[in-house]
User: Fold these one by one.
Assistant:
Number 1:
Amino acid sequence: MKQITQTGTTVENAISAALEKLQATREQVTVNVIQNEKKGFLGFGSKPAEVEVIVNEPEAAPLEKEEAVMETAVAEPEEILEELVEAAPKATNERAIQETKDYIQSIAKGMMIEDLKITHKQSGKQVSFYLESEKVAMLIGKRGNTLNSLQQLAQLVANKYSNQFMMVELDAENYRERRQETLEQLADRMADKAIRTGGRVQFEPMPSYERKVIHQALSRRMDIDTYSEGKDPNRYLVIEPLK
């Protein structure tokens, strides 16, 4: 991303100077006014205008858009899949699993991951897919955000082709198990904090299954209460000490 901070006698002069340096037009940039010009009094206290000018990124290619969708919450996954998946001529669980693997592979290739290996294990309606790659951290993302979003899309693909409802779980390098241990430890620390301070303690927003892990981890404690507030994807968990 190209950007520049520029000063000038006026805001417009500063913008013009920045555009000349960036070799860009006004329509190609975003301007943030850091400071308006100040004339001062009798020449004292005057300050130049200062602006930040950022060259807008070109519209993302389809694969870049798809990666961006996975990095954040998926707002309309059904509509996305209408463009990504054709209607299956014959719905079977075997086809659903293969189509899901193919879909995950296509996402990985779009992220320049060429060595992805996918295995699966099925138990009734539950199908777990395990991902292996030298770049698997890219598929996990920060705090599992990419993996969670990919899992949501993978479940929709699976159910597009299956003849019964399927629950899909994606895991990579035992991330789910490690994340559960981290959440359980965090739950105990936050519960102790609530008791120590005598006030409510609020977690950051997290997916429903992670909130469930914390609820279950603290269900044995009789000195606190846990509940969720807000709306997805910003729903969060609260701990309150019992009076």
Number 2:
Amino acid sequence: MIQRVQSIYLLIASLLSSVLPLIVSLWTQTKESTPIYIFDLFSGHSLLENLIPVFFIVSALVSFSTIFLYNNRKLQFVFGRIAILINLFLLGLLIYLSLTLSGETAVSEKGIGMLIPIFVILLVVLANKAIKKDEDLVKSVDRLR
């Protein structure tokens, strides 16, 4: 049911979580002036650096799989909340990691990639709002019968 507005929101959220981190940098280290992309974090030294790409992938998969749960709106709403929680955790990890970068004598430049979880959260909240609206509409029709 791609014609529903929540499906469009979830598809855009899924694309943001999967494609955009590959294109834009998360931050740029000012010492070497090298941009740090999502796959650069797999070779990171800490577990937190290795978890960030995994959370981006999980967020994209949960958002995309939520589209196909249109028959069960309650489960679709729950999956939307799970996607929001994953992205909130991802945002917290990105903020923590950017504030505690090792070897930070000069402040690094934060990239647009740090804002991706915020945009995904916004889109999933809009999708959940539309799902709730559909559920309320179905309940009101059932009361009239």
Number 3:
Amino acid sequence: MAAQGSGSARGSGAAAALALVLLCVLLHGELAESAVYTVGDRGGWSFNTANWPKGKRFRAGDVLAFRYNAKAHNVVPVSAAGYKSCSAPKGVRALTTGNDRVTLKRGANYFICSFPGHCQAGMKIAVTAA
């Protein structure tokens, strides 16, 4: 009888190990799906970054890392109209740490620097996430 009990325990241990392996695979698959992009690559978030997204494929859930001098710039999520006019609506919260991370939502995502003249000088990006 003792052999049956230990065989049963061995079977439940194997099932638990298999469940753990499957959980790890699923979690890894979720994490592997998102990518992190540094806006502006080595130059960071700065002037003339409007063309930086060209040629890149973004997906909802990907993360944009904005790295910049926090004393000289900021990051403001805006609408398409705000992107075109280089204006942020009143009350919108600017990101100001100099090392901000934004998770992309499906569709169009727009960002500008709201310091006077910076957006007009090309410190803005439009990213479309599939």
Number 4:
Amino acid sequence: MKAIIIDDEKQARISLSLLLKEYCPEIEIVTDCENLPEGVKAIRRHKPDVIFLDIEMPGHSGLELLDFFDEKEVSFAIIFTTAYNEFAVQAFKLSALDYLLKPIIPDELVASVSRLKKQKRDQFSILYENIHSEKLDKIAIPSGTDLLLLNIGDILYIKGEGPYSEVFMTDATKYLVSRSLKNFEDVLQNDRRFLRIHRSYIANFDEAVSYSKSDGGWLNLKNGISIPVSPEKAGLIMEKTTVVKR
């Protein structure tokens, strides 16, 4: 697979090239570029299979790359790279095809390259629409060598444990994700449906049917599932609920 690296830091380009050469020999770096305009020209000239794209660069954000191409022109995958957690969250929030946090860990690089082979064509459309929309409809989560595109409204609740989270869907399926609950909280913070009700749980409040104050507090969901509510979060639930007085 042919690849282009777009990053304003020379050392970052060199480091990624060396990692790819050692751990992903199937990737051929055809060129590297220090800014987005040069990168756009290189893409049109070399027609690569994948772009390793820095998000934060002087002059242009890497997220602006898609503005230079029509959907029919895009035959390449994108793996965003960034040294900043907030931009990693932004990439995750936008259902990015994939991203790597600098300094890049070889195992994560290998996993991202493996996922390239399974990426679907419609992921470009989802990413483009999310970048230009205030409301998110889908979210991309890594699952082994796959990148799953989930409808946000179909998430029942999310349970976090350290650096991992379990995403439980309304159809009873669940996914183990190598993202912390805080990451999900940051992504969903502007979505009125989701509320962190416990240090280990985020719930889709649209799926809630009742709140029980017994045994410390429980939120009961449509599927007959109950999840705990922290005492300090009980007030947030009451704020989102109209209580009928007798």
